[in-house]
Fold these 3 entries.
Entry 1:
Amino acid sequence: MTQSSESGPLDPEDRKIITLARSARARNGVAEGAAVRDETGRTYVAGTVELASLKLSALQTAVAMAVASGAESLEAAAVVTSAVVPAEADVAAVRDLGGPGTPVLVASPAGELTGTF
């Protein structure tokens, strides 16, 4: 997993998915919030799922929602978390649907971009 540094302003559509992910995290009171954007521009927003029988990260849940809704590819993904690096399983889920070039934006709980993977 490689992190790239951002130079210049963030694309408005990428800022939007970070804002949506941040809102999901706050609204649901969960550890992480995530949002993904599919090839048609539709967004899917999710939070961490923690049940006795099912545990999914926010990004895994957002990817699953996209797949269940018929998305064929992803343009971008964002996760709002206190972690500095996304879990490998999260990046793998995004890349399974989006391909190797799909950016995974990681933002702090304050909504500040901390890295792109």
Entry 2:
Amino acid sequence: MKKIILLLLLAVITVAANAKDIKTVYLTTNPVMHCNSCEMRIKENLKYVKGVKSIETDVASQTVKVTYDADKTTVQKFIDSLKKIQYTATEKEATPCTSSNKSCEGQQGSCCGGGQSSCCGK
């Protein structure tokens, strides 16, 4: 009986020691994303930051969503990494994109030869 309790205690300690601090951050970039090339450039750059679990980009809402292990990296490392490819990144609050939320509509960019973007594709 003592062996079983000891094994269970050891299993609980092992699971607790391996618990990761997974977080998500939403970033906006300047220049803004206009096309697949912009998205791929950002994704290719960020995937090499240690601790990144997933990267999602959305041209319509001008958002880069990064899920990461906070024990291995920080938001500042993402911002610094994007500086290497001439993007300025800022952290933003996660807000649902709706047709009334068109704060990015009409912005001009310079990364892909310009063009207009509109929030949520509306």
Entry 3:
Amino acid sequence: MKHLHMLLVFLLIGVFVYQSYLVLSANKQAARPIKIATHILYALAIVTGAWMLMQLMSAQAPVQWVFAKIILLVAAISSSVKAFDGQATPSQSKVGILIAAIAYAGIVTLAYVKPENLF
């Protein structure tokens, strides 16, 4: 399950980079299949992450860092929604992309480091 989750996250970040490139370079929106794929990837990444969280909690492992990842994921999703909205101004898109990129970087860092005493 871990490898599937990592693959989904890798694809999700790749789609984010592609959509960011479209918005920043040509001020265009991604095609409808890309937007649908993004929703599917988010859903599958959340389901696989929840599955792994349940396994960690049953093993009594420290999971404080997972809750920080969830908060960052909510920030990344909400800022991506604003950044890739067709009605967003170029400055709103840029700020949304920046916030989402920082959130994704934080998620990847927390996944790699797994600090035990985060809170």
